[in-house]
Amino acid sequence: MEKESKKRKTQVTLTYLHGLGNILESEAEPGALPRGRNNPKVCPLGLYAEQLSGSSFTTPVVKNLRSWLYRIKPSPCHGPYKSLPQTKFAKFLSEFSVPNPQQLRWKPLPLPPQGNKVNFIEGIVSFAGAGSPDVKTGLAIHLYAANASMENLAFYNSDGDLLIGTIDLISVSLT
Predict the structure, then answer these.
(1) How far is CA 136 from CA 38, 130, 159, 161, in A?
(2) How many helices and strands, by DSSP H and E, does the chain display?
(3) Beta-bridge mates of residue 25
(4) Domain ranges of the chain
């Protein structure tokens, strides 16, 4: 006598992540992600849009690695960090300086007073830095406020990584 095998029919519903070219998206709450744009003026469900980049600013756009995060609270809303007791592991750090993990922002420098001419070089103020030019590694953070031309002066930078933002430069021919 042959035994009849019973075939079980199971129906599986497959769902796929939205996205194209291995750029995928997922959401914990349906309708949480904005459709058709990354950073709308108002995000669904009252969320905040933040972009986390994993690429340097010199990477071509097509090779940029980034993630858009939609958070309940913006990341700067954390409270102040508190130091733990000093251990032998990081004891040598206190000999140099104590690192500050707090989020730091600098207000713009005030414009020089009327009648007091301050050019770009005279208006640069150094705020922070790490490393040293002697070992050819590190960085420095500067702000500037200027209200006068560089008349008969020139500024030269051979670093190649100097970024100057929000400045209108007018180049003139010296011939």
Answers:
(1) 38, 11, 10, 12
(2) 2, 6
(3) 18
(4) 18-77, 104-175
Instruction: Name 48's bridge partners.
Output: 71
* Cβ 121 vs Cβ 148: under 8 Å: no
Structure tokens at 44: 């669904």
**Side-chain half-sphere CA neighbours of 96 within 13 A:** 8
DSSP string, 7-63: PP---------EEETTEEE--SSTT-SPSS-SS-SS-GGG-EEEEEE-S-TTS-GGG
pLDDT digits (tens, 9 = 90+) for 119-170: 988 999 888 788 877 777 888 888 888 888 888 888 887 766 676 765 555 5
Residue with tokens 């996205």: 19
> In the structure encoding, which two tokens stand for residue 25, read together?
């998206």
Alpha-carbon 70 to chain mean position: 16
- Calpha distance 168→20 (Å, rounded): 39
Contacts with 168 (C-beta within 8 Å, 6 or more apart), sequence order: none
Is the whole model's pTM more than 0.90, yes or no? no
Handedness of CA 90, 96, 101, 102 (dihedral sign): positive
> Counting every residue, how long is the chain?
175
